[in-house]
Amino acid sequence: AQSVTQLDSQVPVFEEAPVELRCNYSSSVSVYLFWYVQYPNQGLQLLLKYLSGSTLVKGINGFEAEFNKSQTSFHLRKPSVHISDTAEYFCAVRGSGYSTLTFGKGTMLLVSP
Amino acid sequence: EAGVAQSPRYKIIEKRQSVAFWCNPISGHATLYWYQQILGQGPKLLIQFQNNGVVDDSQLPKDRFSAERLKGVDSTLKIQPAKLEDSAVYLCASSALGGTTPYEQYFGPGTRLTVT
């Protein structure tokens, strides 16, 4: 079984500032890791994923995340946020060889001018 | 490539009424998922189909929820009777078994259900 912890329910930040959204996971098997974004009244859109290889993965909209196996973390970062990045961000984990995703509770990123 | 389609987008019903949601996955995707997303929480898997067979329905409240995918394409999720705590967004997703992105889930826009 897997679980995902997103410690911050809300992260306020000013436009053009850097941001980090934290995600920790637990699993008894090898995992694949994902970050999804959800804009108001929309479904989830995949931002980026870690399947294997380089632990630093780059996604859409200038986001990146680093897989740290020893700390069981997959934190999401962006060096300079825009107002349009205001949304809810979900970290998710899937056991390798399985298709079921387990999601965290989400982090609301609030970008203000 | 057309995405995952869901309807209706919004539904308001009274408790004890019944409601049904429809999902049409991406063409060729064998696996279809229904999630429940309660306000302030992440999506929770209700049921997973592969073609027209159920893979996982361990978190589906079977006394009131049912789902089917008769021809292995589109799917219907039903709630009967609805309770106040069923107010949530119901998300449908689909994924392919093979290809360049096996198991990667693509989500529809969701149906927001309000039970009064």
Keywords:
heterodimer; A: 113 residues; mainly beta; 0% helix; globular; B: 116 residues; seven-stranded mixed beta sheet; four-stranded antiparallel beta sheet
What does this structure look like?
- The complex is a heterodimer of chains A (113) and B (116).
- Chain A is built from no helices and twelve strands.
- Chain A starts with a strand and ends with a strand.
- Chain B is mostly beta strands.
- Chain B is built from no helices and eleven strands.
- In chain B, strands 2, 4, 5, 6, 9, 10 and 11 form a seven-stranded mixed β-sheet that branches. In chain B, strands 1-3-8-7 form a four-stranded antiparallel β-sheet, with no helix packed on it.
- The radius of gyration of chain B is 14 Å and the shape is globular.
- The interface between A and B is medium-sized, with 21 and 23 residues.
Number of strands of chain A: 12
Which geometry of chain B do the CA atoms define? globular
Give helix and strand order of chain B, one letter per element, not per position. EEEEEEEEEEE
Q: Between the first and last Cα atoms of chain B, what is the distance in angstroms?
A: 37 Å
Q: Strand pairing plus helix content of chain A: what structural class? A: mainly beta
The N- and C-terminal alpha carbons of chain A lie at a distance of: 41 Å
Stretches of chain A where pLDDT is under 50 for at least 5 consecutive residues are none
| Major sheet of chain A | 6 strands, mixed
Reported for the largest beta sheet of chain B, the result is: 7 strands, mixed
Rg value of chain A: 13 Å
Helix content of chain A: under 10%
Q: Largest interface: which pair?
A: A-B, 21 and 23 residues
Overall pLDDT metric of chain A:
92
The coarse silhouette of chain A is globular
Question: H/E series of chain A, N to C?
Answer: EEEEEEEEEEEE
Return the average pLDDT of chain B rounded to an integer. Answer: 93
The total count of strands of chain B amounts to 11
Number of helices of chain A: 0
Strand content of chain A: over 45%
Which structural class fits the helix and strand makeup of chain B?
A: mainly beta
Give the oligomeric state of the chains in this entry, treating copies of one chain as homo and distinct chains as hetero: heterodimer
